[in-house]
Amino acid sequence: MPQLGDSANLLLGLAPGWHGGSGAVLPYAAAPNKALCGIDTPASLPTGNWGGLQLSFHPSIASLIDALFDYRLRPLRAMSGQLDLRASNLMLGAGQRAQAIDTLASLLALAPAQLAAGRLVLLQMTRIDAELRHPLDEGGIGRPIHVEHYWTREGRHAIGRLRVARQPIVNDDVEHALIGRHEAGRYFDYLYDYGSHFISCLRMGDKYFQVLACQPQRYDLLQKLWLPLIGQGDAGPALQGLVNYLGGDWITATGRVASASNHVFDGDAWHVPNLPTGHSLLAPLLRQAEALPAGWSVPIGIEFSPHSPYMERQRAIAWQQVYQGAMLQRFGDGASWSNGIAKLASPSRIHSEHASAQGGDISELVGIHPSHDTFHGDLFASRLPVHGEMSWTVQAGASLLALTMDAQAADGCVPRMRLRGSVSSECQVFTGKLRGALLIELADGRLEALFAGLRFAAGTQGRPTVSAELSRPDSATLIRLRLPLLVLLTDAEARWTRASADRDPAEAHAIRGEIAWLLRAVLESGVMHADATQHAFWIAFCKRAALLAHCGPGQAVAPASTANMEWMQAANVLLFRLRLDQPSGLPASELASIDQALLRLLEQARPDAAAPDKATIDKLDACLQQLEQVRHQIALASQALLQRAEPIEDAEAARLLTQLIPSREDSVRPPLTPTSHGDEGLAQVTTLLGRAERDYQLGRLLSELAHDAVGVAIDAPLALLEGADPAGLTQTQWRELPAEAWRVLEAAMQVDTKAVEALRVGLKAYGAQGSVLVMLIASLTRQWHAYHRARWSHDFGEPTSLLQRIQLSASRLDSLLADMIFNQAPAAMDATIDTMTWRCANQDTRAGPDLPPPGL
């Protein structure tokens, strides 16, 4: 008999049936080890009253199973969406469909084919004797729950072995526990050793049931006749007339009358005269019959609660992601998915590389939803929406790379990507951020799932495993998609420029994250060493990506060879033409003309810039050296004050002194959240210190880039900038920082020590050097942007493919034009050009001059 607290591994699904009476098989897979202490379930006597007869119609066997078996899963805490699983998913999914149908057919005395065909009628009567709940499920106000009283020692130790790679971060209001393949393996071990859920509720009782298989052509008519009359509740005497519809004209097969407790008694109790089948659950309503036998009391309803709510928050988030990803891979086909976050706000650009003798040709599809569209070869996209189904013909080794993938559910169904081609073809998918979940149907019919940054596949003996991390592309993929990566980088810069011009900080923040992922993916893949022939390309790519990710897009330089207005008008007309026409469909002569026009416009806007000024670089290096000495002086003075014999009584001052001593060298000071009334000033100062540290690390990064250092040399500043506030301090804020910090410390500094004076002098020097650092960063950033634009062809070359060259040039021109129009154009700009520009920015190709650009 199941007990409250028993652990079940629902990754193995459920079986149709009930445990109790003469039934000996549990409907769930019991975990081999106990995570919770079992609570003895008292024997329930059949003391309840039988409810009325219920009638329900079921077009499919899944609907029948959900009505017959009251097995429920308690929902998880919603994060980036939630998989809603019913009893039918767990019984029919993961390759168990045929076995489940055979078991159910034996129980109901119907042919498996009749059940699989659907169009079924269920008659059932239920008796509830008792409802038993686990104490962990009974908490509330005034009712504390002592979790440690109910977990076994082994279960607590097993939870302690679970690891996360990093602290969970919050991005776009969605929590992500960053775990990799190695850490995920421990979670799978836990799920298979200690289970995924425990029994939190048992409903004891019994039920009688009978299933009828309808004539296919009569099912809808029978449902229309009876459903409005009786509804889905207690049928009562209204069902007495249903006996007239139990003949062969309406019903093809009638199952036996069975019970959940498997209680067998005299079949005459269900006998109905003149009925072809001779027995029916309608018998008590059609004649005076003896009372229904009591039988036994068995668990006819079970609620399963997940283990995660009773874990530490970090482990709980990671556990839920591994569990949901594994359940998606095994039972996601046909399951319901509820979205946890909003869809992408901006349209996408999807590119497909078609195999040809000359190499890859890129066709751009602007602002589409790729449902039911077919792509060939490699796919890459800035933002790829998958709402519904998408077909992808895979070659021997194809890859999909997207900065962001939006796989939001449509009508509650998990979106799916169907792969076509050779069964042995390999398909790799990489993305910096996956919104929602995506199922991948391989060419041989197997399912894989993308969720929470991981790719879930079937391992040995069907056990789920993590086959890849979506954010870590390998060097071979990056080498093959070298030019597409450059397209994505230039497109991201163009979108960021427009977001800045439109004053859309949320969009700019999202694009910053996309570029940062591109940079991290290239640095961690080792592609710069693996692709020795293109080493200069990868060095230039990393420098450009690092500058964009942490300094933002640069200010455009007005073309010198022609008037601003004439240049912008020509650029607008050309870009608008590309928005209207799909480049791959244009004649070769027109493509050649567009290519030349784009290159000419870019040449006119190309700055004549040399390498960043060596004197400025030397000043930056000297400033960083001074700042390092000052930071060390402040840390020593703070430590000396904290170690004095007389402890500092002012709590705010003590906390700030602690903040001034980094826990590790060059660590970024995190913002301090106020915990009590009166420490808002402390929180403000520590936030400013964190932003000041961001400026210091950015200065280090620019210095390393100026000295041609890429790779290990920039890893430290990049890692520290990754979690820092993207906004630094202004010169004014730097100058005011010492006074703000001293205002918090002043009450505790009424002692005559050298440490106090050293701290005061150090803070003043820190603010002074920081104001110089801001000017140097701004100057070098402008110089670097101009230098990269001037050296574009030298650093990256020009693609041999005409369409690739057009795509790159159009993205570069789009970025330049957006900044000039929104920041440098005169107020009296021609209205037609304004409207055209607005449509280009919004990818709106409707005709007519009646769409005024907002904000211009």
Integer-rounded radius of gyration: 34 Å
Question: What is the general shape?
Answer: globular
User: Total number of helical segments?
Assistant: 25
Number of strands: 23
> Mean pLDDT, as a whole number?
80
Helix content: 40-55%
Strand content: 15-25%
Q: Could you explain the architecture of this structure?
A:
It is built from 25 helices and 23 strands. The chain is α+β, with helices and mostly antiparallel strands. The chain starts with 6 loop residues before the first strand and ends in a 14-residue tail after the last helix. The protein is globular and about 105 Å long. Strand 20 (426-441) and strand 21 form a beta hairpin. The strands form 4 sheets. Strands 13, 14, 15, 16, 17, 18, 19, 20, 21, 22 and 23 form an 11-stranded mixed β-sheet that branches. Strands 1, 2, 3, 5, 8, 9, 10 and 11 form an 8-stranded mixed β-sheet that branches.
